[in-house]
Amino acid sequence: MEVAGIIGKWFTRTVVLMVTLSLCTVSDAMAAGALISIDSSLFIQIVNFLFLIWALNVILYKPIRNILKQRKTHVADLEDGVETANSDAEDKETAFEEGIRAARTDGVEQKKAMLEEAAQEEMAIVEKINSKAQADLAEVKAKIAEEADGVRESLQAELDSFAGAIGQKILGRAI
């Protein structure tokens, strides 16, 4: 827009300059005592003006319009690039969030599987310890029963001698 303003000002100044030159020519002619006459110089001025407009259009206006079109195209391409980049960023962010959700879900499932496996392993270990404890308990009970039988037999053997000694003491005589 700034370039168009500059071109407009320049065009206005050119037209004012041409009018001023024409008026100077007319005022010179009037000072000489001549009347304004429309002759071939008017047509030369019109042709000169049209040539100036054509030359300005070719030399100045068209290149500036082309530059403005290129700039507009470039800005539109940049805006499309920005929109594409924004949509790609949103897609990547969505994919990232979905990946995180999937990873969390997988993590929770793996955690549950590990906890379940640990619970099963714990139960197996507890069962193994219980069975070993039961076996040890049975072995200890058998050992205790065996020792109790051994002690009972030894006490049984000594029982007769104890009974005789007790009887002697109670009766006060030998049995």
Task: Describe the model.
It is a single chain. The model has no long low-confidence stretch (mean pLDDT about 85). The protein has helices at about 1-30, 40-170. It is an all-alpha fold and about 180 residues long. The chain has one domain (about 40-170). It is built from 2 helices and no strands. It is rod-shaped, with a radius of gyration of 61 Å. Helices cover about 95% and strands about 0% of the residues.
* Proportion of residues in β-strands: under 5%
Estimated structural class: mainly alpha
Number of helices: 2
Helicity, as a percent range: over 70%
Distance between the termini: 146 Å
Query: What low-confidence regions span 5 or more consecutive residues with pLDDT below 50?
Result: none
**Main beta sheet: strand number and arrangement?**
none
**Tally of individual domains:** 1
Shape: rod-shaped
Task: Report the order of strands and helices.
Answer: HH
| Rg calc | 61 Å
Average pLDDT number: 83
**DSSP strand count:** 0
Provide a compact summary of the structure.
The protein has two helices and no strands. The chain has helices at residues 2-31, 40-171. It is rod-shaped, with a radius of gyration of 61 Å.
SSE layout and pairing:
Elements lengths: L1 H30 L8 H132 L4
Output the keywords.
rod-shaped, single chain, mainly alpha, 2 helices, 175 residues, 93% helix
